[in-house]
Amino acid sequence: MYRFKWLFCLLSVLLVCTISFCTSPVSGGGGFEGEARIICQVQYSDGSVASDAVVKIIDNSQWLEKIKRGESVVIDSTRTDQNGHFFVTDIPAHGFNVIISSDKEQLMIFGADTVFADSAREYFKVLKAHASLRGNIESEQVEKVYVYGTDLWGAVDDQSSFEIDRVPEGLFPLFIKESSSPGLSSYSFLRTVELTAGSNYILETETNRGGILVDDFELSEQQTQLGTVNGGTTWYSFYDSRDFGGNTTMEISVVPDDVSNSMKLSTTLRSGFEYPYAGVGLFLSNMRQYVDFSGFEKIEFDARGSGTLRVSLKTASGVFSDSVLAYGWVVETGSEWQRHSLDLNSISTFHVWGEYQPWDVYSLYVKMLEFEISDHHNEIDAPIEIFLDNIYVFGVPLENFSTQK
Fold it and tell me: Residue 335: its pLDDT value, please?
Protein backbone atom coordinates (compact mmCIF):
# COMPACT_ATOMS: atom_id res chain seq x y z
CA MET A 1 0.00 0.00 0.00
CA TYR A 2 2.72 2.48 0.97
CA ARG A 3 4.77 1.42 -2.06
CA PHE A 4 1.77 2.20 -4.29
CA LYS A 5 1.34 5.66 -2.77
CA TRP A 6 5.04 6.38 -3.24
CA LEU A 7 4.90 5.30 -6.90
CA PHE A 8 1.77 7.41 -7.50
CA CYS A 9 3.43 10.53 -6.05
CA LEU A 10 6.52 9.97 -8.19
CA LEU A 11 4.46 9.69 -11.37
CA SER A 12 2.55 12.85 -10.44
CA VAL A 13 5.77 14.85 -9.98
CA LEU A 14 7.12 13.61 -13.30
CA LEU A 15 3.89 14.58 -15.05
CA VAL A 16 3.90 18.11 -13.57
CA CYS A 17 7.57 18.64 -14.46
CA THR A 18 6.97 17.43 -18.03
CA ILE A 19 4.13 19.92 -18.50
CA SER A 20 6.15 22.73 -16.93
CA PHE A 21 9.19 22.23 -19.13
CA CYS A 22 7.56 21.28 -22.43
CA THR A 23 4.58 23.60 -22.77
CA SER A 24 5.74 26.60 -24.82
CA PRO A 25 3.13 28.44 -26.96
CA VAL A 26 5.79 30.87 -28.18
CA SER A 27 9.33 30.69 -26.91
CA GLY A 28 12.55 32.56 -27.21
CA GLY A 29 15.87 31.38 -25.93
CA GLY A 30 18.91 33.43 -25.03
CA GLY A 31 21.11 30.49 -24.12
CA PHE A 32 21.39 31.46 -20.45
CA GLU A 33 21.87 28.86 -17.79
CA GLY A 34 19.35 28.56 -15.00
CA GLU A 35 16.14 27.76 -16.91
CA ALA A 36 14.25 30.76 -15.48
CA ARG A 37 10.99 31.24 -17.42
CA ILE A 38 8.15 33.74 -17.77
CA ILE A 39 4.68 33.13 -19.17
CA CYS A 40 2.32 35.97 -20.05
CA GLN A 41 -1.09 36.66 -21.60
CA VAL A 42 -1.54 40.05 -23.30
CA GLN A 43 -4.74 41.97 -24.16
CA TYR A 44 -5.71 45.39 -25.46
CA SER A 45 -7.60 47.84 -23.26
CA ASP A 46 -10.88 46.86 -25.00
CA GLY A 47 -10.42 43.24 -23.91
CA SER A 48 -9.43 41.87 -27.30
CA VAL A 49 -6.46 39.57 -27.75
CA ALA A 50 -3.10 41.21 -28.52
CA SER A 51 -1.77 38.74 -31.09
CA ASP A 52 1.54 39.10 -32.95
CA ALA A 53 2.79 41.76 -30.50
CA VAL A 54 6.58 42.18 -30.23
CA VAL A 55 8.12 41.15 -26.91
CA LYS A 56 11.62 42.23 -25.82
CA ILE A 57 13.51 41.16 -22.68
CA ILE A 58 15.92 43.74 -21.21
CA ASP A 59 18.57 42.68 -18.69
CA ASN A 60 18.65 45.52 -16.15
CA SER A 61 21.70 44.26 -14.29
CA GLN A 62 23.91 44.81 -17.35
CA TRP A 63 22.04 47.69 -18.94
CA LEU A 64 24.49 50.57 -18.47
CA GLU A 65 27.55 48.41 -19.11
CA LYS A 66 26.13 47.24 -22.44
CA ILE A 67 25.20 50.81 -23.42
CA LYS A 68 28.79 51.89 -22.75
CA ARG A 69 30.13 49.03 -24.88
CA GLY A 70 27.71 49.77 -27.71
CA GLU A 71 26.01 46.39 -27.35
CA SER A 72 22.30 45.62 -27.60
CA VAL A 73 20.48 45.61 -24.25
CA VAL A 74 17.84 43.23 -25.67
CA ILE A 75 18.79 39.74 -24.50
CA ASP A 76 15.78 37.95 -26.02
CA SER A 77 12.73 38.66 -28.15
CA THR A 78 9.63 36.86 -29.39
CA ARG A 79 5.99 37.54 -30.41
CA THR A 80 2.64 36.71 -28.88
CA ASP A 81 0.67 33.88 -30.49
CA GLN A 82 -2.89 34.08 -31.85
CA ASN A 83 -4.25 33.87 -28.30
CA GLY A 84 -2.05 36.68 -26.97
CA HIS A 85 0.33 34.37 -25.11
CA PHE A 86 4.09 34.30 -25.04
CA PHE A 87 6.57 32.10 -23.26
CA VAL A 88 10.27 32.91 -22.76
CA THR A 89 12.81 30.54 -21.26
CA ASP A 90 16.56 30.48 -20.59
CA ILE A 91 16.60 34.03 -19.24
CA PRO A 92 19.09 35.36 -16.64
CA ALA A 93 18.08 34.54 -13.09
CA HIS A 94 17.85 38.15 -11.91
CA GLY A 95 15.84 41.34 -12.51
CA PHE A 96 14.80 42.31 -16.03
CA ASN A 97 12.25 44.39 -17.94
CA VAL A 98 9.72 43.12 -20.46
CA ILE A 99 8.60 45.51 -23.22
CA ILE A 100 5.54 44.58 -25.29
CA SER A 101 4.62 46.68 -28.33
CA SER A 102 1.88 46.46 -30.95
CA ASP A 103 1.06 48.01 -34.32
CA LYS A 104 -2.11 49.40 -32.70
CA GLU A 105 0.06 52.10 -31.07
CA GLN A 106 -0.20 50.44 -27.70
CA LEU A 107 2.55 49.03 -25.55
CA MET A 108 3.51 48.00 -22.03
CA ILE A 109 6.61 47.68 -19.91
CA PHE A 110 6.84 45.78 -16.67
CA GLY A 111 9.72 44.84 -14.46
CA ALA A 112 10.05 41.31 -13.23
CA ASP A 113 11.53 40.65 -9.83
CA THR A 114 14.42 38.29 -9.38
CA VAL A 115 13.63 34.90 -10.83
CA PHE A 116 15.48 31.83 -9.67
CA ALA A 117 16.85 28.90 -11.58
CA ASP A 118 14.23 26.30 -12.47
CA SER A 119 11.38 28.69 -11.67
CA ALA A 120 8.60 30.33 -13.67
CA ARG A 121 6.60 33.55 -13.29
CA GLU A 122 3.14 34.06 -14.80
CA TYR A 123 1.70 37.47 -15.77
CA PHE A 124 -1.42 39.02 -17.31
CA LYS A 125 -0.91 42.42 -18.96
CA VAL A 126 -3.14 44.99 -20.70
CA LEU A 127 -1.50 47.26 -23.27
CA LYS A 128 -1.83 51.05 -23.05
CA ALA A 129 -1.29 54.01 -25.35
CA HIS A 130 2.35 55.00 -25.65
CA ALA A 131 3.88 58.29 -24.49
CA SER A 132 6.49 60.51 -26.10
CA LEU A 133 9.41 62.36 -24.55
CA ARG A 134 11.13 65.45 -25.84
CA GLY A 135 13.27 68.18 -24.38
CA ASN A 136 16.31 70.41 -24.47
CA ILE A 137 19.70 70.00 -22.75
CA GLU A 138 22.09 72.89 -22.28
CA SER A 139 25.35 71.21 -23.18
CA GLU A 140 27.24 71.02 -26.46
CA GLN A 141 28.88 67.77 -25.38
CA VAL A 142 25.70 65.69 -24.92
CA GLU A 143 25.11 63.40 -27.92
CA LYS A 144 22.34 61.02 -26.84
CA VAL A 145 19.65 60.57 -24.20
CA TYR A 146 18.83 56.98 -23.12
CA VAL A 147 15.71 55.68 -21.34
CA TYR A 148 16.92 53.31 -18.61
CA GLY A 149 15.66 49.73 -18.74
CA THR A 150 14.66 49.99 -22.42
CA ASP A 151 16.32 50.02 -25.83
CA LEU A 152 15.01 53.54 -26.48
CA TRP A 153 17.21 56.58 -27.06
CA GLY A 154 17.20 59.92 -28.84
CA ALA A 155 19.98 61.88 -30.53
CA VAL A 156 20.63 65.47 -29.43
CA ASP A 157 20.64 67.79 -32.47
CA ASP A 158 22.43 71.08 -33.17
CA GLN A 159 19.69 72.94 -31.28
CA SER A 160 20.34 70.82 -28.15
CA SER A 161 16.94 69.15 -28.60
CA PHE A 162 15.99 65.48 -28.57
CA GLU A 163 12.85 63.38 -29.17
CA ILE A 164 11.99 59.82 -28.16
CA ASP A 165 8.69 58.34 -29.34
CA ARG A 166 6.76 55.22 -28.35
CA VAL A 167 7.85 55.26 -24.70
CA PRO A 168 5.81 53.11 -22.27
CA GLU A 169 4.07 54.48 -19.22
CA GLY A 170 6.23 54.44 -16.11
CA LEU A 171 9.00 55.99 -14.03
CA PHE A 172 12.21 56.16 -16.07
CA PRO A 173 15.73 57.37 -15.20
CA LEU A 174 17.37 59.15 -18.13
CA PHE A 175 21.07 58.72 -18.90
CA ILE A 176 23.15 60.83 -21.26
CA LYS A 177 26.20 60.21 -23.43
CA GLU A 178 28.75 63.00 -23.54
CA SER A 179 31.84 63.32 -25.73
CA SER A 180 34.45 65.73 -24.44
CA SER A 181 36.89 64.85 -27.24
CA PRO A 182 36.99 62.50 -30.26
CA GLY A 183 36.91 58.89 -29.10
CA LEU A 184 36.37 59.80 -25.44
CA SER A 185 32.82 59.40 -24.13
CA SER A 186 31.21 59.26 -20.70
CA TYR A 187 27.76 58.23 -19.49
CA SER A 188 25.93 59.74 -16.55
CA PHE A 189 22.54 59.92 -14.87
CA LEU A 190 20.53 63.02 -15.85
CA ARG A 191 17.23 62.75 -13.98
CA THR A 192 14.09 60.60 -13.69
CA VAL A 193 10.80 61.38 -15.44
CA GLU A 194 7.33 59.98 -14.83
CA LEU A 195 5.34 59.29 -18.00
CA THR A 196 1.64 58.53 -18.29
CA ALA A 197 -0.09 56.64 -21.12
CA GLY A 198 -0.85 58.84 -24.14
CA SER A 199 1.08 61.85 -22.79
CA ASN A 200 3.58 64.08 -24.56
CA TYR A 201 6.16 64.79 -21.85
CA ILE A 202 8.26 67.91 -22.40
CA LEU A 203 11.47 68.10 -20.41
CA GLU A 204 12.07 71.79 -19.76
CA THR A 205 15.51 73.13 -20.60
CA GLU A 206 17.77 70.92 -18.53
CA THR A 207 21.24 71.98 -17.42
CA ASN A 208 23.70 69.13 -17.35
CA ARG A 209 25.65 69.92 -14.19
CA GLY A 210 27.90 66.88 -14.43
CA GLY A 211 27.33 65.54 -10.91
CA ILE A 212 24.97 62.94 -9.44
CA LEU A 213 21.46 64.37 -9.02
CA VAL A 214 20.31 63.57 -5.49
CA ASP A 215 16.93 65.27 -5.89
CA ASP A 216 15.10 68.07 -7.67
CA PHE A 217 11.75 67.26 -5.98
CA GLU A 218 9.86 66.62 -9.20
CA LEU A 219 8.73 63.22 -7.92
CA SER A 220 6.81 62.36 -4.73
CA GLU A 221 7.69 63.93 -1.36
CA GLN A 222 9.82 61.02 -0.17
CA GLN A 223 11.03 59.53 -3.47
CA THR A 224 14.40 60.96 -4.46
CA GLN A 225 15.94 61.10 -7.91
CA LEU A 226 18.92 59.18 -6.54
CA GLY A 227 16.54 56.54 -5.17
CA THR A 228 15.20 55.79 -8.65
CA VAL A 229 18.63 54.59 -9.79
CA ASN A 230 20.11 53.13 -6.60
CA GLY A 231 16.95 51.35 -5.51
CA GLY A 232 15.93 52.89 -2.22
CA THR A 233 17.15 56.33 -1.11
CA THR A 234 14.29 58.38 0.43
CA TRP A 235 14.00 61.45 2.65
CA TYR A 236 13.44 61.31 6.41
CA SER A 237 12.87 64.07 8.99
CA PHE A 238 14.29 64.46 12.50
CA TYR A 239 13.67 66.87 15.38
CA ASP A 240 13.83 67.05 19.18
CA SER A 241 10.32 65.78 19.83
CA ARG A 242 8.92 65.09 23.26
CA ASP A 243 10.30 61.57 22.97
CA PHE A 244 13.76 63.12 23.21
CA GLY A 245 12.91 65.72 25.87
CA GLY A 246 12.19 68.63 23.52
CA ASN A 247 9.13 70.14 21.89
CA THR A 248 10.31 71.33 18.46
CA THR A 249 8.11 70.38 15.50
CA MET A 250 8.99 69.94 11.84
CA GLU A 251 6.86 70.12 8.68
CA ILE A 252 8.14 69.03 5.28
CA SER A 253 6.34 69.55 1.99
CA VAL A 254 7.13 69.64 -1.71
CA VAL A 255 5.73 72.87 -3.16
CA PRO A 256 5.60 74.49 -6.62
CA ASP A 257 8.20 77.22 -6.93
CA ASP A 258 8.50 79.25 -10.13
CA VAL A 259 8.66 76.61 -12.91
CA SER A 260 9.61 73.65 -10.72
CA ASN A 261 9.12 72.08 -7.30
CA SER A 262 11.21 72.53 -4.17
CA MET A 263 11.27 71.09 -0.66
CA LYS A 264 9.94 73.39 2.06
CA LEU A 265 11.18 72.99 5.65
CA SER A 266 9.03 74.70 8.29
CA THR A 267 9.99 74.67 11.97
CA THR A 268 10.06 76.63 15.20
CA LEU A 269 12.89 75.79 17.55
CA ARG A 270 11.56 75.60 21.11
CA SER A 271 13.44 76.36 24.30
CA GLY A 272 13.58 73.82 27.12
CA PHE A 273 15.89 71.41 25.33
CA GLU A 274 19.66 71.52 25.56
CA TYR A 275 20.11 71.43 21.80
CA PRO A 276 16.91 72.31 19.87
CA TYR A 277 17.10 71.05 16.29
CA ALA A 278 15.08 69.95 13.26
CA GLY A 279 15.97 68.87 9.76
CA VAL A 280 15.80 66.41 6.88
CA GLY A 281 18.22 63.82 5.59
CA LEU A 282 18.68 60.70 3.53
CA PHE A 283 20.71 57.52 3.62
CA LEU A 284 23.04 57.72 0.64
CA SER A 285 23.15 53.96 0.05
CA ASN A 286 20.19 51.82 -0.96
CA MET A 287 21.31 49.40 1.76
CA ARG A 288 21.65 52.15 4.40
CA GLN A 289 25.30 51.23 4.60
CA TYR A 290 28.53 53.16 4.10
CA VAL A 291 29.31 54.95 0.84
CA ASP A 292 32.87 55.47 -0.39
CA PHE A 293 33.28 59.27 -0.62
CA SER A 294 37.05 59.17 -1.12
CA GLY A 295 36.67 60.89 -4.50
CA PHE A 296 34.22 63.50 -3.18
CA GLU A 297 34.67 67.00 -4.61
CA LYS A 298 31.64 69.08 -3.61
CA ILE A 299 27.90 69.35 -2.96
CA GLU A 300 25.78 71.89 -4.82
CA PHE A 301 22.19 72.94 -4.17
CA ASP A 302 19.80 75.90 -4.45
CA ALA A 303 18.38 77.42 -1.27
CA ARG A 304 16.37 80.37 -0.04
CA GLY A 305 14.65 81.15 3.26
CA SER A 306 14.80 82.84 6.63
CA GLY A 307 17.38 80.83 8.53
CA THR A 308 20.75 79.12 8.65
CA LEU A 309 21.47 75.51 7.66
CA ARG A 310 24.07 73.04 8.83
CA VAL A 311 24.77 70.74 5.89
CA SER A 312 26.54 67.61 7.04
CA LEU A 313 27.95 64.32 5.80
CA LYS A 314 27.60 61.86 8.67
CA THR A 315 29.81 58.86 9.15
CA ALA A 316 28.35 55.67 10.58
CA SER A 317 28.95 54.83 14.23
CA GLY A 318 31.20 51.92 15.00
CA VAL A 319 33.60 52.39 12.10
CA PHE A 320 36.25 53.29 14.63
CA SER A 321 35.78 52.53 18.32
CA ASP A 322 34.03 55.35 20.23
CA SER A 323 34.24 57.73 17.26
CA VAL A 324 31.34 59.44 15.43
CA LEU A 325 31.93 62.49 13.26
CA ALA A 326 29.77 64.85 11.22
CA TYR A 327 31.64 66.84 8.58
CA GLY A 328 29.98 69.78 6.90
CA TRP A 329 29.29 73.42 6.30
CA VAL A 330 27.18 76.32 7.63
CA VAL A 331 25.01 78.01 4.99
CA GLU A 332 23.11 81.31 5.33
CA THR A 333 19.90 81.60 3.28
CA GLY A 334 18.20 84.75 1.99
CA SER A 335 14.92 85.74 0.40
CA GLU A 336 16.22 85.03 -3.14
CA TRP A 337 17.36 81.71 -4.57
CA GLN A 338 21.11 81.20 -4.36
CA ARG A 339 23.29 78.38 -5.67
CA HIS A 340 25.62 77.04 -2.96
CA SER A 341 28.79 75.08 -3.76
CA LEU A 342 30.33 73.35 -0.75
CA ASP A 343 33.71 71.71 -1.35
CA LEU A 344 36.43 69.96 0.61
CA ASN A 345 38.42 73.17 1.04
CA SER A 346 35.72 74.58 3.33
CA ILE A 347 34.58 71.41 5.12
CA SER A 348 34.78 71.31 8.92
CA THR A 349 34.02 68.89 11.75
CA PHE A 350 30.81 69.76 13.62
CA HIS A 351 31.11 67.43 16.59
CA VAL A 352 33.43 64.68 17.75
CA TRP A 353 32.69 61.82 20.12
CA GLY A 354 36.05 60.26 20.66
CA GLU A 355 39.35 61.13 19.09
CA TYR A 356 39.28 63.55 16.16
CA GLN A 357 39.96 62.00 12.75
CA PRO A 358 40.64 63.96 9.53
CA TRP A 359 38.25 63.70 6.58
CA ASP A 360 40.50 61.41 4.55
CA VAL A 361 40.22 58.75 7.28
CA TYR A 362 36.40 58.79 7.37
CA SER A 363 35.74 59.50 3.69
CA LEU A 364 35.18 55.77 3.04
CA TYR A 365 32.39 55.55 5.62
CA VAL A 366 29.85 58.28 4.83
CA LYS A 367 26.29 57.18 5.57
CA MET A 368 23.90 60.16 5.55
CA LEU A 369 23.50 63.63 4.05
CA GLU A 370 21.53 65.97 6.35
CA PHE A 371 20.22 69.55 6.30
CA GLU A 372 19.75 70.71 9.88
CA ILE A 373 18.26 73.83 11.50
CA SER A 374 19.60 74.28 15.05
CA ASP A 375 19.86 76.86 17.85
CA HIS A 376 23.58 77.30 17.10
CA HIS A 377 22.72 79.73 14.32
CA ASN A 378 18.97 80.44 14.57
CA GLU A 379 16.66 82.19 17.03
CA ILE A 380 14.58 80.24 19.54
CA ASP A 381 10.76 80.47 19.31
CA ALA A 382 10.92 82.15 15.88
CA PRO A 383 9.27 80.52 12.83
CA ILE A 384 11.80 79.45 10.20
CA GLU A 385 11.19 78.47 6.58
CA ILE A 386 13.88 77.17 4.24
CA PHE A 387 13.48 75.91 0.65
CA LEU A 388 15.86 73.44 -1.06
CA ASP A 389 16.19 72.41 -4.72
CA ASN A 390 18.52 70.80 -7.27
CA ILE A 391 20.87 68.91 -4.92
CA TYR A 392 23.96 67.39 -6.60
CA VAL A 393 27.00 65.46 -5.39
CA PHE A 394 30.24 65.62 -7.41
CA GLY A 395 33.19 63.25 -7.53
CA VAL A 396 31.45 60.10 -6.26
CA PRO A 397 30.59 57.45 -8.93
CA LEU A 398 26.95 56.45 -9.19
CA GLU A 399 27.74 52.80 -8.43
CA ASN A 400 29.08 53.79 -4.98
CA PHE A 401 25.58 54.81 -3.87
CA SER A 402 24.22 51.31 -4.36
CA THR A 403 27.09 49.24 -3.00
CA GLN A 404 26.93 47.68 0.43
CA LYS A 405 30.20 48.03 2.30
Answer: 93
